[in-house]
Amino acid sequence: MTTVLSLSVDPALDRRAPNQQIWPLTATVTEAGHLAIGGCDVVDLVARFGSPLYILDETTVRAACQQYQASLARLYPQAPHRVLYASKAWSCLAVCALVAQEGLYIDAVSAGELLTAVEAGVPGDRIYFHGNNKSHDELRYALELGVTVVADNWHDLQGLRELAGDRRPRVMLRVTPGIECHTHEYIRTGHLDSKFGFDPNEMPAVLEFAAQRNWEVVGLHAHIGSQIFELQAHRDIAEALVSWYRQGRETYGLPFTELNVGGGLGIRYTEADDPPTIAEWVEAVVTGLGKAWEGSGLPWPTLVCEPGRSLIGPACVTAYTVGSQKTVPGVRTYIAVDGGMSDNPRPITYQSRYSALLANRPTATAATVVTVAGKHCESGDVLLRDVLLPAPASGDILVVASTGAYNYSMASHYNRLPKIAAVLVNQGEANLILRRETPADLLRQDCLPDRLRG
Ligand SMILES: *Cc1c(COP(=O)(O)O)cnc(C)c1O
Predict the structure, then answer these.
(1) What number does the ligand 1 atom closest to the CA of 225 have?
(2) How far apart are CA 407 and CA 47, in angstroms?
(3) Is there a common fold for 3-52+316-442 and 76-307?
(4) What is the DSSP string of 239-308?
(5) Which fold does the domain 76-307 belong to in CATH?
(6) pLDDT, tens digit, for every residue of 185-201?
(7) pTM (2 decimals)?
(8) In which residue ranges of the chain is pLDDT below 50?
(9) pLDDT the model gives residue 12
(10) pLDDT of res. 186
């Protein structure tokens, strides 16, 4: 169960795909016998920044960004490419600024995610705006920023028509591609019974509507789901879009130049997970595009993709402090930590599985089967079920791997737990990127009507 930790590596030379690793690329064991990430002793980080703590490894984020960029440059030399970071995976200033430094664009889904990208220094022309129910306020904001609006439905198209004024919005059209893939039902989006995108039957009317506007309609988008290991589904995307792409250009005279194939590449949470590498995923997408476009006479499109999980997921671990224990004789032993479903709602939402070790003795023999529970008032608040660990005791620092995606961004205040802090680690340096909330922070938005005052 205890995963072999790598030696520290030069990021420029590292060829391992982050999404195939359970632990960040820089995970190693110090001379003191502690887990280190980004050259920082995790036990020291917890002493300094408190517990629980998200620890984000800069090297691993940069390596994932570089592997997407380099694979696209190598495998798709015909036309430009754009890698968008699906910021819903983890939206905060430091993460947006970090991926932007690697040349990535940002995909945002709300006014809050737009604001975060903008405040991180990302210009509007490097932001794409998604969402299946954009409010008029959000659309107005998006138009002011000059971002690319990915129109998901008629509500978006009509909103843009009402609000554009003299502006000439840059628009993509999201199509439901009708591609089934194997992942959790809640994170499947490509099948026809999905709330996202235009139904293919509507496309002629959508293209006609778009052609009547003086908009910069740049292309088509599809996204089939998340945590996907099969390459075939991603190979099929271009084929599902090519006829609409052709009709848009040839029948309706739309200036299509971009094909956005979405994100969705899965990552390794446990030894049982076996995702393809980032390069293999890019190769599948490019192969599918090649087949669909071959002999079509269509110019090669700018290939846009928007990974979230595979960029940020493997780069982060969450450190907790072990507290109470309870043994149900003959059934199981519960080990409780000081966080849980409020900082990682994935196990209770998707029955997701994770890997863990003890940062203060990462190489100790893992010989005890335990269930790691959170501290919330919910029996389902279990982070890891039946995992092998070296008999955790109160005060041990338990570290859960691959928590960068859909953890902080889905965090809640359940049981009024303040949101936890996050640090960015790199070459022995640790910088706070999210301050730990306090109970007082939780009261900031509370209002007490006079008549209720005692
Ligand atoms: C969630 C989402 C992504 C990113 O998916 P990952 O599985 O995190 O790579 C990309 N595009 C759209 C439209 C999404 O909704």
Answers:
(1) 7
(2) 22
(3) no
(4) HHHHHHHHIIIIIT-----EEE----B---SSTT--PPPHHHHHHHHHHHHHHHHTTS-PPPPEEEE--S
(5) TIM Barrel (3.20.20)
(6) 666 677 778 899 999 99
(7) 0.95
(8) 1-4, 6-9, 11, 13
(9) 53
(10) 67
Q: Starting at the earlier edge strand, list the strands of the sheet with 40-41.
A: 28-29, 35-37, 40-41
Active site residue 65: no
Atom of ligand 1 nearest to the CA of 228: 7
User: What tokens were used for 250?
Assistant: 């040839």
CA distance 80 to 239: 19
CA of 249 to the centre of ligand 1 (A): 26
The two structure tokens encoding residue 207: 């293209």
Q: How many residues does the chain have?
A: 454
Q: What pLDDT, on a 0 to 100 scale, did the predictor assign at position 1? A: 35
- Closest-CA residue to 6 (of 34, 19, 25): 25
Q: Does the structural domain 3-52+316-442 have CATH classification 2.50.20.10?
A: no
Per-domain boundaries in the chain: 3-52+316-442, 76-307
Catalytic residue among 65, 316, 377, 447: 377
Q: Which of 341, 406, 409, 416 lies closest to 379, judged by CA?
A: 341
**How far lies 104's CA from each of 85, 98, 308, 424, in Å?**
6, 9, 11, 19
Render pLDDT for 318-347 as a digit per residue (tens, 0 to 9). 999 999 999 999 999 999 999 999 999 999
Yes or no: say if 42 and 319 are a contact pair by the CB < 8 Å rule: yes
| Ligand 1 shell residues, CB under 6 Å | 86, 88-89, 107, 130, 223, 226, 262-265, 306-310, 405
